[in-house]
Structure formats: structure tokens, C-alpha cells
Known about the structure:
By secondary structure, this protein is mainly beta. The protein has a single domain, classed as Neuraminidase (6 Propeller), CATH 2.120.10. The protein is built from 2 helices and 27 strands. It has helices at 2-20, 128-131; strands spanning 37-38, 61-69, 72-77, 83-87, 91-96, 99-103, 119-124, 133-141, 146-155, 160-168, 183-185, 191-195, 204-205, 208-209, 223-227, 249-252, 257-262, 269-273, 280-284, 321-323, 329-334, 347-351, 356-363, 366-374, 379-384, 390-394, 399-405. The strands form 7 sheets. A 5-stranded antiparallel sheet has the order 1-20-19-18-17, with no helix packed on it. Strands 2-27-26-25 form a 4-stranded antiparallel sheet, with no helix packed on it. A hairpin with a 4-residue loop joins strand 9 and strand 10. The longest helix is centred in the N-terminal third of the chain and has 19 residues, at 2-20. The chain is globular and about 55 Å long. Residues 1-35 and 40-53 have low confidence and may be disordered. Calcium ion (CA) binds next to loops.
Amino acid sequence: MKTSYHRLQLVTSAIALTLISCSNLEPASNLNSASEVLSPAQGNPISNNNPNGNLTTQGFKKNVLAKGLERPWGMASLPDGSILITERVGRVKILRNRLVKQVPIAEIPKLFVSGQGGLMDISLHPRFSENNLVYLIYSKGTFEANHTSILRVKFDGTALIEPKVIFEVKPDKSGNQHFGSRIVWLPDETMLISVGDGGNPPLELKGELIRKQAQKLDSQLGKILRLKDDGSIPPDNPFVEADRVNPFVWSYGHRNIQGLFADPISGNIWSTEHGAKGGDELNLVRSGKNYGWPLVTFSREYTGGDISEEQSRPDMVDPKLVWKVAIAPSGLLVYQGDRLPLWKGNLFVGGLVSKELIRIKIDNNNPIIQETIPIGQRVRDVRQGIDGCIYILTDEKSGQLIRLEPI
Ligand SMILES: [Ca+2]
């Protein structure tokens, strides 16, 4: 809590500084706090901390609905108000009538639980109320050879049954880093999934750093992929007619996206992407575009040194925001509920390392950070419940489900 409080103070200081200096935004090089945020899309990197100072006075409280969840990763609200929650070790739990129970699940084939891998996101089919279909994304295989995979199951009200692996990312990689893995649905009932670049140096694939896969269009690593609900190729995918391009590729040049959200109101698709040492990004993602990794990035190697000397290229899409000091973003939401009305339309970013929730106003597709809400635990997922409140999962050995609700 102390760290989060300190960070909030830094943000507040940055806001005060910005207010004092009016429209004279501070060059990024003059900032040295953990609240440094760059906005390269607006030209030279600048501080983007609440330049207008227009904090809302939305009252809210944090209500801990469940404790003792083991490394929870993703959640999905059922029509009856219950919530399905994944635990990375391979369990699914349900919060129903204020009680958390384990949901029996048929075998998850070759589940690989190690490092960042295991059972990750969970998502309901858009017509779940008709077909009861649930999608789970997980790492499959062994330490030597593994990949991200999608398991489709049916929820019969009690158990997850009729498992079928409908999609397996290619190629295999080794190690236990950078799997992605969010699932979101588009209005046409196709899904987008985020797939990581495979891992950090010195990890290699075919004699070169595996991170270079993000720029290789015949590889599914370091991409957002678009699939039909049965795991097949949508005929209108951006590269479906191109030679030597994997037909599932929807966007590319990504390192490791763990926040992905398709806003049904604006139609925008937002993503948050982990950098290595700093350089975390918020992107507005579009079909067929290149988001730069690892050719352009503000991130630096964990061991020190630049990953790239370039931060921008004309044929690549700049991030909308860059966190120069890592927050390790996971979980992303554009809030469209009525229970916290002053936050409607705002974007919420979870932070694993920063242990906070960041509230961002979207002004004409440009994000403006409004405030950070300290959580004091690693924030893994952020969702809107069917009751219109905001739900948070914390990535701890004894993780929590927390609801932000009106006072
Ligand atoms: Ca990028």
C-alpha cells in the first residue's frame, strides 16, 4: 500500500506541476518519477498526466467479494449474475450467491503450468444464453515445446463439459514466457486473441531471437489473431489473400498483450502491451497494421541497453500512450455502465507491477490519464459486471475479486 500511495503522490505532484506550468507540458526527459507517461502519437514524447486537471468526484468503494483465489487470471459474467473465474494452475471457479465454488471441468489437454503459462483467459460466446459455449485460452505442451491454445467447452450450469481444442498457435516455442492471452469478441461473432512474441533474449527460434517472430507474417507469435467461433479462418481477414502470410493474422508487431477490449459503443479496439524494462504501451489497434515490436519501441533490455534506436517509423502505428517506467499492464476495460456515471466511457488499465487501476479519459481517440486508483495487489483483470459495476481480479497467491461500486 505504501508503494501505491507513494505513486499516487507522484502522480498528484505531476498533475500539480502541469497545472502550474499551464499548457507548457514537461518534456519526458525532465521527468524521473514512476508516473512518467509518454504520448508519442502527439509528436515529441510529452507528459500526459491530466493536463486539464479535471478529476471527477465519482464516489466509489472497494468491496472484496472473494479471497483465496490462487493466481486468478480471467473472469466472465454469466447472465444470472454469477461469475466464472480462471486460476492459472488450471481450475475454474464460480462466484454464485456470494459463495465461491470449484467448477468441475473435463481435462484440459496437455495444460502447461509454468512461469507465465497455464490456464489464462475465459470468455463466453456472444450467444451464450442460446448455446452455453465458453472459451478458455491456455498454454499447452512442455517446457521444450509449447504454444497457446483455445479450448471450447459447454457450461451446463454446474460443470464445464464437452471439451474441444479448436485452435492451436503455431509455431511451438520453448520456455514459459509471453503467451498473451486475451480473448475478445467482435460484433460479427468472430474473436480476437492476443499471442505473445514467445519470450525474452536469449530465447531463440530457428537461430535468431524469438522476439523477431512478431514481425514475421507467416508466424502467429507476436500477433493479434482473428478466428471464427469454431476456430476456422474468417474469409475477410486482412491477409487472407496474401502469399506467405498466416491467414489468421489480424495485426502484428506486438510483444505481449494482456489487456484487450472491443468497445461496442465506439467500435474501437484497445490493447495494452508489456514492454521489457519500461515501454509498456496502450494501442488503438486496427486490422492489418504493424505495431512495431521489436523494431520500434521505448522499451529497454532487462539487462540494460536499447532494444531499438528507433521509437517510430512511418509504416508502423505509434502507441497512444507509453509508460516509460513499467506498470506491467493486464486487464482492460472501456466502462459503459450506469452505476458509476462519471466514469462512463473511461478506459481502465490494470497494473501488475504498479498494483493499481489507471483511469483514462478518451478524447477524440486520444487518451488522457485522469487518476490512479491504488489497489495494493497485482491487478490481473478488469471487467464490467452485468450489474454495471467494475470488477478486478488480483494476481496473488491468495488473490481477490474486488468490486468497485457506488457509495
Ligand atoms: Ca508498439
